[in-house]
């Protein structure tokens, strides 16, 4: 999501910044940005080993090492893609709800509305018995009433 409409874009003082982590730390020093970025930056920094086209790297431009570690708002330490996977695997319902909402947005070609909540709740509630399988989740979205009446 973009910043709220009442938040002016900021350009942090980036002098001396040599890594994405250092840039994010300067950005989080702005109290207006801190609340959201404390939640999303650890996930992004954990994926920092991948460059812009998805190739794994251990250093920035063969120089500075990449630090893929972070700490989630609840204090859980994560490190790299494996750390994200471990973190999300302990929260299957939250992950499933988020993924279901994103699939709904894609499948419906529109934003989620209030009337979609019951269908999303039903799908999320059904997923434990299907072991949270992606194939089943997609089938549930496609079988939903909003999908058939869009």
TrEMBL record:
Q: What are the residue boundaries of the DUF1588 domain, all occurrences included?
A: 2-59
What range(s) does the DUF1585 domain occupy?
A: 74-147
InterPro entries, per this entry? DUF1585, DUF1588
**A Pfam cross-reference name:** PSD2
Q: What is this protein called?
A: DUF1588 domain-containing protein
Q: Which organism is it from?
A: marine metagenome
């Amino acid at each position: 999501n973009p910043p709220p409409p009442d938040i002016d874009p900021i350009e942090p003082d980036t002098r001396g910044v040599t890594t994405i982590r250092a840039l994010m730390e300067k950005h989080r020093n702005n109290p207006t940005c801190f609340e959201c970025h404390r939640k999303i930056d650890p996930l992004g920094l954990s994926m920092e080993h991948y460059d812009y086209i998805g190739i794994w790297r251990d250093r920035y431009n063969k120089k500075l090492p990449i630090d893929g570690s972070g700490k989630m708002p609840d204090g859980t330490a994560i490190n790299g893609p494996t750390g994200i996977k471990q973190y999300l695997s302990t929260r299957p319902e939250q992950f499933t709800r988020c993924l279901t909402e994103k699939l709904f947005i894609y499948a419906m070609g529109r934003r989620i509305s209030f009337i979609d909540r019951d269908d999303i709740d039903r799908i999320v509630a059904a997923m434990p018995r299907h072991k949270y399988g992606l194939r089943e989740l997609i089938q549930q979205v496609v079988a939903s009433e909003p999908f058939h009446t869009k």
